[in-house]
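Hi R.,

Here's the chain you asked about this morning:
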Amino acid sequence: MQHVLERSVHENTRYASNWKGMTRNDSQWAAQFAVAAELVRRGYSVAFYHGNEPLHDMPVRGRKSANQFVLQIKGTQGRPPQKPQAHGPDILVGKLQTGKLTDLFVIVYTPPAAYAGGQNPGKPFRFFIATRQELQAIRNPGKQQPKFTSDWVKYPGISRFEDRWDKLPQP
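And here is the predicted structure, written out as tokens:
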């Protein structure tokens, strides 16, 4: 057992010394846990889907109301633009034509952490809550990639959805 622990510490130390930032997968997990923490703080119970559930990432239930719904979570490391008129990076939101128009999405800006060499240590997560229909209205073609189809949005389009937790059913 001691050997396994020493090897694990060695591997983690080596990984940390080669740190180049979060991967898209890291950003997605950070986003899901950030949304879960915020929802629990607001009076909801949450769970996670593990595996390939293409339409939803998180089943949610209000602790008092027992209202149940699901969320699609999208994490992005792309920094919001400093000037409101700037477009900023493309944000991958998946295939918006699939699913119900009322499906809820939470797009989460996951800033770099201080220990990872980020320029803005201590910056909070930013949450943008919108329905599938609202995202369809502002989508753009984004980057065309072979064998990959998805829809994209930009920060100016989603800025009006920041911290719109009121769109969720009562907890």
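One quick note: The CA atoms of residues 129 and 164 lie 5 Å apart.

Cheers,
M.
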